[in-house]
Design a protein that fits this description.
Bound molecules: zinc ion
Strand content: 25-35%
CATH superfamily: 2,3-Dihydroxybiphenyl 1,2-Dioxygenase, domain 1
CATH topology: 2,3-Dihydroxybiphenyl 1,2-Dioxygenase, domain 1
Shape: globular
CATH class: Alpha Beta
Radius of gyration: 19 Å
CATH architecture: Roll
Number of domains: 1
Number of helices: 5
Length: about 325
């Protein structure tokens, strides 16, 4: 087996209203808007990226802006909760902040950790978990949330499946995840070094409807590959385990392969590099529409057709 995937690389979801989406993730959650580009497969629609200051692998939540799609509840065969890591001592700050901004929250405890559950502007289920590491995180000094309380990237993802056994077997035997706990019908698995950003919770249900590709749902979760060789080794292993895997696809900011785990959830394995500074310097991330070379010729048309986005700025932000 190749070295395990170290953890979550990014999560991609679908929004119906790009401005509301940007307002929520930047103004409310204090993530930095790090990239404005188009969906490389549907180039007349946005692909928006939020993350820490640099979009460090493990911090980037991305959205396809698909206003024509109807809304549907998250369901079986999908990632149904995206959990972010915050310092344990910051949960009080976040409860107050979210409530003060009109976001309905619920406090819980899971696997011994404090959790705040809430929904985004498209009613997608999110959580803040009080367990964080600063190891792979770059604070955004000009953001609306003080650095000591800022989101440190992902904590975990919850997968909802019809039966847990096939997914569990695949994750453990093929992908090398290991069990770290069982609670309330959920199995917690870890990859890599374990801890925040490497966790996956598996929940089996016979009742929930099948998930469909819709506004307010997660499209896929990507796991990290350290480099192209590491990704190639994983592709070989997955093909050897009878998974249907795409060829390596150049996503400009990383290289990707895609496949489904047995429960139907779409997985990606994405390389850590080259990263989001490949076409903009760190202090300008997210400031211009960035296009891959194959769509540069359509820039004028795309700029005209795509709805404008106003990215909130905050006191202390440099002008421009
Ligand atoms: Zn992706």
């Amino acid at each position: 087996m190749p070295d395990s995937v170290p953890g979550i690389h990014h999560v991609t979801a679908i929004t119906g209203d790009v401005q509301k989406n940007v307002d929520f993730y930047v103004r409310v959650l204090g993530l930095r808007f790090i990239k404005k580009t188009v969906n490389f497969d549907v180039p007349d629609t946005y692909h928006l990226y939020f993350g820490d200051y640099l979009g460090t692998p493990g911090t980037a939540l991305t959205f396809f802006g698909w206003p024509q799609l109807p809304w549907a509840p998250q369901g079986v065969g999908q990632v149904t909760t995206v959990a972010f890591a915050v310092p344990e001592g910051s949960l009080g700050y976040w409860s107050q902040r979210l409530t003060g901004m009109g976001v309905e929250t619920a406090r819980a405890e899971r696997f011994g950790l404090g959790v705040i559950a809430f929904r985004d502007a498209d009613e997608m289920q999110l959580e803040l978990v009080g367990q964080a590491s600063d190891d792979r995180w770059c604070p955004w000094q000009e953001g609306p949330v003080p650095p000591q309380h800022q989101i440190r990237g992902f904590h975990s993802v919850r997968l909802t499946v019809r039966e847990d056994e096939p997914s569990e077997r695949f994750l453990v035997e093929v992908m090398g995840f290991r069990e770290t706990g069982r609670e309330g019908g959920q199995l917690r698995l870890a990859t890599g070094a374990g801890g925040p950003d490497s966790l996956l919770d598996l929940l089996a249900t016979r009742r929930a409807p099948a998930g469909v590709e819709a506004t307010g749902t997660v499209h896929h979760v990507a796991w990290r590959a350290r480099d192209d060789d590491h990704q190639r080794a994983w592709r070989k292993r997955l093909v050897g385990a009878d998974r249907q895997v795409t060829p390596v696809i150049d996503r400009k900011y990383f290289h990707s392969i895609y496949f489904r785990e047995p429960g139907g959830v779409l997985f990606e394995i994405a390389t850590d590099g080259p990263g989001f500074t490949v076409d903009e310097p760190p202090d300008r991330l997210g400031s211009e529409l960035q296009l891959p070379p194959q769509y540069e010729g359509r820039r004028q048309r795309l700029t005209f057709d795509l709805p404008p986005i106003r990215v909130p700025t905050f006191a202390g932000s440099p002008p421009g």
